[in-house]
Amino acid sequence: MKKKIKINPYIYILLSMLCLITFIYYPAIKTMIKSLYLVNAQNRPVKFIGLENYIKLFSDPEFINSIKVTFTYALVVVPCTLLISLILALFSSRKRKMSVVYELLYAVPMAVSVSVACVVFSILLNGNLGLINHVFHLNVQWFTDKNVTLIALMFIGIWLDIGMNYLFMLSAVRGVPAELLEAAEIDGAGILQKVKSIIAPLISPTVFYLFCVDMGAALMMSGPVIILTNGGPSGATNTMIYYMYKKGFYIFNYGLSYAAAVIAFIIGFIAVLIAFVWERKGVKYS
Amino acid sequence: MKKTLVMTLAVSMLFGTAAQCASLTEISTAKTKSDDAIELVLWHNRGGANGETVDGLIDEFNETVGAQKGIKVTSVRQDDSIVSTFKTLLYANDMANMPDLATLYAGDVEYASTVDCIQPLDDLMANDSEFNSDDILPSLRSAYNYMGTQYSLPFHGDATIMYYNKTAFEAAGLDPSSPPTTIAEMAEAAEKLLVKDGETVKQYAITLGMQNCYFNNWIADQGDVFYLGDNEAGRTGRMTKVTFDTDGTMLNLLNEWQKVLDTDAVQSIDEGDQPKNEFISGLSAMFIGGNWAMTSIEEGAAENGFEVGVCELPKVKESDIGGVCPGGTSMYIINKDDDTRVQAAWEFMKWWTSGDTQTKFCMKTKYIPVNSKTLENEEYHKWLEENPNYKVPFDALMNSDPRIQEQLAPTQQEFQSIFLETCQSWAKGEMTAEECVQNMAEKCNAALDEYNTANPIE
Amino acid sequence: MRRLKNKKIKSIIFQIFFIFVGLIIAFPIIYSVSASFMKATDIVGLNPRIIPKSFTLKNYKEVLESTNIIRQVFNSLLITVMACALRLLVAALAAFGFSFYEFPFKKLFFYLTICTMLIPGEATLLTNYETVSKMHMVNTYAGSIIMFIGSGTSVFIIRQYFLTLPKSLHEAAVIDGCSDFRFFCTIVMPLSKPVLSAAAINGFVQIWNQYIWPKLMATRTEMFTVQVGLAQLNSTQGSSYGVILAAAVIALLPTLLFFIFFQKQIAGGMVAGSIKE
After folding, report:
1. Is residue B75 situated within a structural domain?
2. Residue ranges of the domains in chain C?
3. Which of A131, B14, B452, C89 has the fewest Cβ atoms surrounding its Cβ within 10 A?
């Protein structure tokens, strides 16, 4: 083999990289640079202040709390979503007469946008006038009691993620060759055994992907907080990106806001790196 | 699969060219029209049925005054964050896509005063003999006057009033024709309005969590006029600190409200439409809100079978001057370096704020007309008599001291969350009124400091 | 014979159970549909209802009267279908590069690709508007489409799938003198139908539900997408839940149709035996 840099692979990734760099990394880097400045309400840098925004950030207990909240959220939502969608995918792995119906029912939450989901859940979970409390004779203030609000948001988060996760899980589970499963059945393997020794390794690439994407989305969660709780009560749902949003759009301190975005990115990046260590060990591609 | 892919691509290309053609023809028709008419774009944020009313009136303008003067107004419905869309365009310096007219909320006037392309109206108003600025309701006019300059004229007016469930009042042995006029009287009524079935509450007196919109009224109208923060709550210069803690107004208010809380007939939840929905459902017997809620409350009350009364906002104390803080949106002209466009936009603004237009607008939407000339309209008079509920906010705003205005803290949104959250803990008994005031003042001042460091006052 | 019958009964019980679970999961959506036919007071009230007490079409009437829904659906479909097709194509090409080649900085580029999901939209919005407005693409379909083409997660999922394809396949193709691009077009893509379908559904739904960017790209009413148009109903205080839900249901319909159409492709699955040799 001659030592020659092939240009072929670069051509394949060129278009994608071009889009991502122009519309994500170029603005993101501009943002990153602004985090070293004092930025005014018109979003223009006023004065270079070095790492001052970062120092402020880490001395703000609210931000430290937001990291905790974000991780609590992510550590519940990601495993739950994966588990539920895996179970649903196993339910529907075999084609049956009615499978079209329940496949649709399992996947349909993905078609709902975050804002619509928030409206629907705010109606259903309305403390005094909502259906859920009414039907189950509960008296839970889902969005104002600081002990349950994060749980309500987790619930909404899981519900929003299930559809997409299920869909990819299903396509992975369906990809498991039937003859392998039949062979195992003849050997007398139970369901759990089949999952563990045949299905799990074969779907690991998909699970790995879903883990990364769910993790990323959970760490970046802000939509339902903005719409439903404004970080409250008492900071119980103040996530990292909501903190960023609030500093930027409510207080117009964009410098600090962008510093928070950079830190959130670094935290997310570390999570991705850890996931990739797992990829090398546990994910089997063929 | 390849076939499907190719097909999809081909179809989408076809779609694309078709659409491109469609938009091209639109541009060209717009151009041919522009030979004889100036096309102005108006951004407003009235949606649904009210949006239909606005757009219908704009069509009327285009057919009458607009046709005579060669002006065509195109309305674009935006959402509640018009101002952020505006800021985005401004940041990119994209004047081509800027509207010529835009409606913003009352709290944005300080921001608007810092934007170069927003046209101050004083000269236009002074040079137009057909326009008499005294016709505009004083409260509303001064809401959009910042440090002596008129930056915009009101688009629609709104005022805070109290709705009450007449049927529930009667059932509780209260006189439905004399609703409470002070917070202390509210407390008395509240005690009677509370209906319990064992431990579960069947009817509360009111659903209300102290927050910004109530403070705008209840801090300002105590004694003589008071302000939430320094520089007349940001009206004569940037707010640098809050003053509600040092002048005692907030403590006054909270202590009065404590009387109502003590009856255990209050739900201190104030997220979004919750207070209104609980009022409509009959769960609470009083509701404090603006004209914006009138249509849906009247509809809902009819469906649920109770009668609604409307009264002026109760005062904090008997001796207070009272009055009400005007709300709503206002219309700004964006100057694109073209005087004829500015003049055309002014023509529309003049037409919109005129007595006739406002009469038609308000009779459909139940907002408050911005022009006192509406009173000369007989049809309107008749309508007022038929809708006694509606007359209350209109009169309240007409008679209110124009100094009672919304606070202009540049960090309003943050104030709102601070107020709501801190007062909620106070209402639950987690802190005393003094602590609550202290806590809110500290947090508000911190937010102001943060803003003022990032945005030094020049 | 009996065993067969037992099996059949078991299967029916399973299916009923699965559908029951499905109804619970989809309940918020079923409820939305039901509530969109209710009066406001039956949705939130002291006795909220699951099934409308009196069936009303008022909410739908208000939605249809106050928005130009047909034009908006057209705009949305156009933007979504084009952006989604381009997204898949671009992502599949990149995924091919990442999974069939070794090259310097591959890791870096790959990390860059997937870390895009860690950058919040709020942090890029202003600059992106500036860029697109300099390209004179505001108020055009292209302005909306271009923003949704690049997608790190799409590259990621397709790469995951490509990696499971046996290496021997590529080697065999090379020996046959098949160029890489032809190999990509004629062998890899057809084999990847399930994952491409899943990614297509995901992309379609995601782009269809976009709101903030299409809103900025539409400073004229003619350019409104469904989401932008329907949000106006919600924008001012006083809109009732019924109207908002009716709007949401209308916006949901096209996604459902798209979903049902593409679901078969996933359900079909890949013909395992043919490539595992």
Report:
1. yes
2. 2-59, 66-276
3. B14
- For the domain that residue A239 is a member of, what is the CATH number? 1.10.3720.10
- Based on the fold, state whether residues B435 and B287 are members of the same structural domain: yes
Count Cα neighbours of A186 within 13 Å in the Cβ-side half-sphere: 6
Residues B206 and B288 both lie in one domain: yes
Listed residue (B274, C180, B148) closest to A125, CA to CA: B274
Report the predicted TM-score, pTM, of the whole model to 2 decimal places.
0.90
Could you tell me the two tokens for B190? 């509240």
Task: Please tell me which of A75-79, A175-179, B108-112, C225-229 the model is most confident about, judged by mean pLDDT.
Answer: A75-79
Domain boundary among B354, B373, B399: B399
> Per-residue pLDDT tens for B446-456?
999 999 988 88
Residues B275 and B374 in one domain: no
Cα separation, A232 vs A126, whole angstroms = 16
Of the candidates C133, C190, C233, the beta carbon closest to that of B94 is on: C133
Q: Are residues B125 and B196 in the same domain?
A: no
Helix (H) or strand (E) run with residue B253 in it: helix B249-262
HSE, side-chain direction, 13 A CA sphere, residue B172: 26
Among candidates A258, A239, A238, which has minimal Cα distance to A248? A258
Q: Are residues B211 and B357 in the same domain?
A: no
Angle at C199 between CA C198 and CA C204, to 5 degrees: 100
For residue C198, which residues of chain A lie inside 8 Å, CB to CB? 167-168, 171
Identify whether the C-beta of residue C263 lies closer than 8 Å to the C-beta of residue A100: yes
List B residues 136-175 in contact with C (Cβ-Cβ < 8 A): none
Q: Which CATH class is domain C66-276?
A: mainly alpha
- Alpha-carbon distance values, B332 to B71, B119, B153, B339 (Å): 17, 7, 7, 15
Point out the residue among A128, A232, A250 whose CB comes nearest to the CB of B413. Answer: A250
CA distance A189 to chain B (A): 37
Could you report the per-residue pLDDT of B312-355, keeping only the tens digit for each?
Answer: 999 998 888 878 899 889 999 999 999 999 999 999 999 999 99
Q: Give the CATH number of the domain where residue B286 resides.
A: 3.40.190.10
Sequence-distant (6+) residues with CB within 8 A of A12 are C93, C94, C96, C97, C101
Would you place residue B261 in the very low, low, confident or very high pLDDT band (cuts 50, 70, 90)? Answer: very high
Q: How many domains does chain B have?
A: 2
Q: Are B207 and B287 in contact (CB under 8 A)?
A: yes
Residue from the list B26, B292, B304 with its beta carbon closest to the beta carbon of C222: B26
The number of domains in chain A is: 1
**What's at B435, amino acid-wise?**
E
Contact at CB, C198 and A167, closer than 8 angstroms: yes
Chains near A with 3+ CB pairs less than 8 A apart are B, C
Listed in sequence order, the residues at least 6 apart from B306 whose beta carbon sits closer than 8 Å to its beta carbon are: B165, B166, B167, B168, B282
Q: Are residues B188 and B337 in the same domain?
A: no
Q: In 3D, which of B26, B51, B72, B39 has the Cα closest to residue C139?
A: B26
Please tell me the number of Cα atoms within 13 Å of A154 on its side-chain side: 19
Is residue B404 situated within a structural domain?
Answer: no
Q: Which domain holds residue A98?
A: 36-282
- The pLDDT tens digits for B35-78 are 578 999 999 988 878 888 999 999 999 999 999 999 999 999 88
Query: Last residue of a domain, which of B375, B399, B423?
Result: B399
Q: Are A264 and A48 in contact (CB under 8 A)?
A: no
Residues in chain A within 8 Å Cβ distance of B424? 144, 233
